[in-house]
Amino acid sequence: MKQRIGPPDQSLGNAVRRILGSPRLRKAGLSCAVSILYHFFFLQYRAALIPRRARISSVDHPLDKDIPFRPRWVGVYLDFTAFWIRCAGFPLSRYGRRVQGKVIEFIDSINLLYVRAAQVYTENFSTTRRPRYYKSPRFLLIHALDPHLMCVPSLHVMLVIRSYTAFGAMLRSLEGGEQFASSIEDCRRHALDITEAILYVKQHSVNCIPAALYAMTRFDPSLFPPEEAEAFAAALFTRPGSPPAREAIRNHIISLYRRFLAEGETADDWTAPLRAFLLTCPRQVNRRTIGCNRKL
Fold first, then answer.
1. Burial annotation 76-103 (CB, 10 A radius, 16+ → b, else e)
2. Domain presence at residue 1
């Protein structure tokens, strides 16, 4: 996978400058940054350093072995944060202050995704088997900063889904938004690329993807209804060179998504299907094996 800036057509630096250049946008952005530090890094490191305080489940699936480890996809995977920031900056570069309110709502929704995902993690953390691959500075960074205890639901997938759906809805609601149809489609394709990259670099299991799809349908069914969730899953691994087991992978993701959705209809709490699933997974008891069970 050739590394390049992903869509939309907006540099990360320009997007950050536009967000920080406005007091209102800066407040939303900084609030989001604080939320990420607490709900992703602090909670995860606390669980890693004080393991007795948290239940940790192993969520690997046999189909994970059918997805080859492809280190060259790491750049696409690591774009998941820059992607949503560019999605915020793009409308600002075209519409300026007229779209600030919508961009603030988008940034606030990213903030809320971290909060909602943490509702599952703090009840039951989850992990997968990651290769001990240190031949790239990017992988060194991943292993150094990510204790790898927040797998179900996949926040990476939740973020890219919110990015492409909110980006499209935002632009379609604006005057002249129809001219950005190709940019909207490019963003959807990039969200799919990042989702595939997550599996190629072994940051998640195929079990983590349907959990994220379910979380996003429950988060905003108007932007990510079941029809879009299943269409998104069906579009994974459709390019040449995809794993031979691609159909089985897609079928598993859609089937488990439907199961979560059905169980969620009668649950008092949207997290209940995910927590019930995690209780059926093996419990991780040997902290030394988390995130580094096999060497390539």
1. bbbbbeebbbbbbbbbbbbbeeebbebb
2. no
